[in-house]
């Protein structure tokens, strides 16, 4: 049977990076095996589930580069892929379990169950449901009731987890689980099994926050007479202090990393490497991950989130990206800075190339690009750099360079380099004498991109204007 995996987010908020990592693991597994990746929306909580969350989750997954063969947006042979649209099916399965004696109605009131728990606690026992009504065979007219599934009372349930190994749970620990609440709505453990069965899922890979649910789910498969899939429980992502990653450690939504200018390629690379490795290789393309990543090679203990490493990977991906593609990725970040992108259209690639080697994130790149976009008159100057480099003969030098550059009919790196070399030869100076005054003139700062990178990014008119303005600043004419 070919592999079918799924990612089953609840649309109750943004996509957490842990969820993104679970989705990615399923995606890679499906791609390697030529299987099917299903996206299913678990929107059984009507209060907290929102369509806009669902849409955002789908957009975030697509941003990361994930593709699914079946899902609420693309349909598929087992549609619908939203649990809220499958209630008739859950009801029918519950009726079938009742009819075959695998489930039963229980009309114990909440007061009765509270009293039971209080008595158990007083006697020093763990509070749990006492299986009352398991054999009572109550009919649908027994008043307000829930439907519970019969769990085995003896023996052990064995879970052979792909990541965690063998886990054994004594069945006496398993309560007769409610599958339909008294208001008629189905519960998570029930619907997830019905759906995974109906959708032909052969491997369930999810976060290990669900590992305690799995034995209960295995018995629901048994009760349904359905084949039990394989399971893989991914350890939680930990914060730097070793506790489960949460908001107090920083950003936890995938979208917040996109917004801070992490490339999807770097995020994909980083998420796959969390708790998984292949020799000492750090940088992986999607294609490499598809061939190399295996769920069973994921470590069984939690991996720590390491922002420095993510930024390092991001910088590596930024440096390796084709400038035209990187420019395209930078546009929203330039717009967010308020830059008049359209006015600089033909120089954008030069601007991005100038900063590509020096930016850990796209936000960082965009903020460093400010001097390229601001009107000349608004360029802000670092006074220390001005004091050091825009004085005395620098004025003459900048004025001569401005004149030479103004005369160029070709604004290319070879032409710029020839013009600068000619000027230096004429004045008997070394490049070092020229670069710093020019940098301060063009950027206002003492550090920045290379000489030709700055000139190409600014273009002829603005470069000449800035050189002339700085020359006047350094030694006023006359
Ligand atoms: N909807 C569940 C969640 O978001 C996923 C359950 C599962 O993968 O079985 O945690």
Question: What does this protein structure show overall?
Answer:
With about 475 residues, the protein is mainly alpha-helical. Among the domains are: about 1-70 and about 235-320, Rossmann fold, CATH 3.40.50; about 325-475, Orthogonal Bundle (Arc Repressor Mutant, subunit A). Helices cover about 45% and strands about 10% of the residues. The chain has 20 helices and 11 strands. The structure holds glutamic acid. Glutamic acid binds near residues 8, 10 and 206.
- Indicate the structural class: mainly alpha
Overall mean pLDDT:
96
The total of beta strands comes to: 11
Radius of gyration: 32 Å
Q: What does the main sheet amount to? A: 3 strands, antiparallel
Apparent shape = elongated
Give the low-confidence spans. none
Our estimate of the beta-strand percent is 5-15%
The helix content is 40-55%
- Report the total helices: 20
CATH third-level topology of one domain: Rossmann fold
So, the CATH homologous superfamily of one domain? HUPs
What's the end-to-end separation, in Å?
A: 88 Å
Name every ligand kind in the structure: glutamic acid
Summarize the structure.
The chain has 478 residues and is mainly alpha-helical. The chain contains 20 helices and eleven strands. Among the domains are: 1-72 and 235-320, 3-Layer(aba) Sandwich (Rossmann fold); 323-474, Arc Repressor Mutant, subunit A, CATH 1.10.10.
């Amino acid at each position: 049977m070919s592999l079918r995996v799924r990612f089953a987010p609840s649309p109750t908020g943004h996509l957490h990076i842990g969820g993104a990592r679970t989705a990615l693991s399923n995606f890679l597994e499906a791609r390697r095996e030529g299987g099917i990746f299903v996206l299913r929306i678990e929107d059984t909580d009507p209060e907290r589930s929102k369509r806009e969350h669902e849409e955002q989750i789908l957009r975030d997954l697509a941003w990361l580069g994930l593709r699914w063969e079946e899902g609420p947006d693309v349909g598929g042979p087992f549609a619908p892929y939203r649990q809220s649209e499958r209630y008739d099916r859950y009801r029918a399965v519950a009726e079938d379990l009742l009819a075959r004696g695998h489930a039963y109605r229980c009309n114990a009131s909440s007061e009765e169950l509270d009293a039971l728990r209080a008595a158990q606690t007083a006697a020093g026992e763990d509070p749990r449901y006492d299986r009352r009504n398991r054999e009572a065979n109550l009919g649908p007219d027994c008043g307000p009731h829930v439907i519970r599934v019969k769990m085995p009372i003896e023996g052990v349930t064995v879970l052979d987890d792909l990541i965690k190994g063998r886990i054994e749970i004594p069945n006496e620990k398993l309560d007769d689980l409610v599958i339909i609440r008294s208001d008629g709505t189905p519960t998570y453990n029930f619907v997830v099994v019905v759906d995974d069965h109906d959708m032909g899922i052969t491997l369930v890979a999810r976060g290990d926050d669900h590992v305690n649910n799995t034995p209960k789910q295995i018995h629901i498969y048994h009760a349904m007479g359905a084949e039990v899939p394989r399971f893989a429980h991914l350890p939680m992502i930990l914060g730097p202090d070793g506790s489960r990653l949460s908001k107090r450690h920083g950003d936890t939504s995938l979208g917040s990393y996109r917004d801070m200018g992490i490339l999807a390629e770097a995020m994909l690379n980083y998420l796959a490497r969390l708790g998984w490795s292949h020799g000492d290789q750090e940088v992986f393309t999607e294609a490499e991950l598809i061939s190399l990543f295996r769920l069973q090679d994921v470590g069984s203990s939690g991996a720590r989130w390491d922002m420095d490493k993510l930024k390092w990977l991001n910088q590596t991906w930024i440096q390796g990206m084709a400038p035209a593609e990187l420019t395209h990725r930078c546009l929203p970040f330039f717009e967010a800075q308020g830059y008049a992108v359209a006015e600089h259209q033909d120089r954008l690639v030069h601007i991005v190339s100038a900063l590509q080697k020096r930016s850990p994130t796209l936000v960082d790149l965009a903020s460093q690009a400010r001097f390229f976009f601001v009107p000349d008159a608004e360029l802000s100057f670092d006074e220390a750099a001005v004091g050091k480099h825009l004085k005395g003969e620098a004025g003459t030098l900048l004025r001569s360079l401005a004149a030479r550059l103004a005369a160029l009919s070709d604004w290319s790196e070879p032409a710029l380099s020839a013009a600068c070399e000619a000027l230096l030869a004429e004045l008997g100076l070394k490049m070092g004498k020229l670069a710093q005054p020019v940098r301060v003139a063009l950027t206002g700062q003492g550090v920045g991109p290379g000489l030709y990178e700055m000139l190409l990014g600014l273009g002829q008119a603005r470069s000449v204007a800035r050189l002339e303005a700085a020359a006047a600043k350094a030694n006023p004419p006359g």
